[in-house]
Amino acid sequence: MNTVKTGWIGLGKMGIPMSQQLIKAGYPLSVYNRSKDKEEGFKAQGIGTAASPALLLEEADVVFIMVSDDKAINDIFHGDGGLLAAKASGKIIINMSTVSPAISKEVAAACKAQGNHYLDAPVSGSVKQAEDAMLVIMVGGEAGPFEQAKPILEKMGKLVMLVGDTGAGNVAKLAINTLLGIVAQGLSETVTLAQQNGINAEALTTLIGNSALGSPFIKIKGDAIVNNNYNAAFALKHIAKDLRLAKDLGLATPLGKTAYQTYQDAEAAFGEEDIIAVIKQVNKK
Ligand SMILES: NC(=O)c1ccc[n+]([C@@H]2O[C@H](COP(=O)([O-])OP(=O)(O)OC[C@H]3O[C@@H](n4cnc5c(N)ncnc54)[C@H](OP(=O)(O)O)[C@@H]3O)[C@@H](O)[C@H]2O)c1
Which superfamily is assigned to 6-164 in CATH? Predict the structure, then answer.
């Protein structure tokens, strides 16, 4: 049994499997989710719940956050019963959501004034990697709290790396997701060209998978196209959001600009589907 008390905010597609790794590793855990129905499975496991982020922080030593976007982070820190309302100091708050470096810097300063530490620690990998504890975790913040948090983060990932000061994890993540958006669009355009010329998706993705271009991402998303399965593992609305954040960081290169626009155009129709539903958007063109 580990003695560090952990708390988890955000029980979405990623938050559930990631927090389950802490339970598996024997950490005491309490959870909070805005929509209470998502806490039910944890209650059934005997896991405690907190009525607000502030109450969660008061009872835990290390609190993890995995929510959608900057607005969600703003609500969790500044809203009623938010983290900044907690009577708590000496805690470590680890934000694993994909958000802007700007909001990380803002809430990190507020945490410091409160007497707590903040790390941004976004992840590369999706639901499958979260379930297998094979995420890649990139961290921004101070070395002291990072070293304290590292053994816990290692329960969720295969690589945990401090990349710089507050916000550096967010910058690294947005750079990686720019590549993700470009690759998903590239695969979609490649399959579309082949299909238009009589080669089916299964044949083409099998060929790519066995070529030097083969990768776990191409395999999973190629299978999704072949099986016509666009249920979200990583919702397209999230990559649309990430490319907006990358644009705010200065993304203005040819492929980056094109990917940005494609996902913005796709979001209204396909935002709730998986990122690879971008193939439906490129087919429209
Ligand atoms: N899915 C992936 O493959 C993947 C991979 C890497 C990184 N990410 C990133 O990880 C984060 C979470 O992704 P996900 O796929 O787990 O998302 P998700 O399934 O849509 O879950 C989002 C979570 O955020 C909470 N939330 C949203 N707005 C909120 C607000 N205003 N106040 C409080 N809570 C709020 C939701 O609460 P409710 O239940 O109340 O709505 C839910 O717990 C995102 O930043 C995403 O870009 C995702």
Answer: NAD(P)-binding Rossmann-like Domain (3.40.50.720)
pTM assigned to the model: 0.95
- Ligand 1 atom closest to the CA of 122, numbered from 1: 7
Q: Is the CB of 260 under 6 A from ligand 1?
A: no
**Which residues contact residue 85 at a Cβ distance below 8 angstroms, ignoring those fewer than 6 apart?**
52, 54
Half-sphere exposure of 73 (CA within 13 A, CB side): 26
**pLDDT of amino acid 123:** 98
Exposure string (b/e) for 211-235, b if CB count within 10 Å is 16 or more? eeeeeebbeebbebbbeeebebbbb
**Regions of the chain short of the pLDDT cut 50:** none
pLDDT of residue 1: 64
Looking at residue 2, its pLDDT comes to: 80
Q: Which residues are catalytic?
A: 173
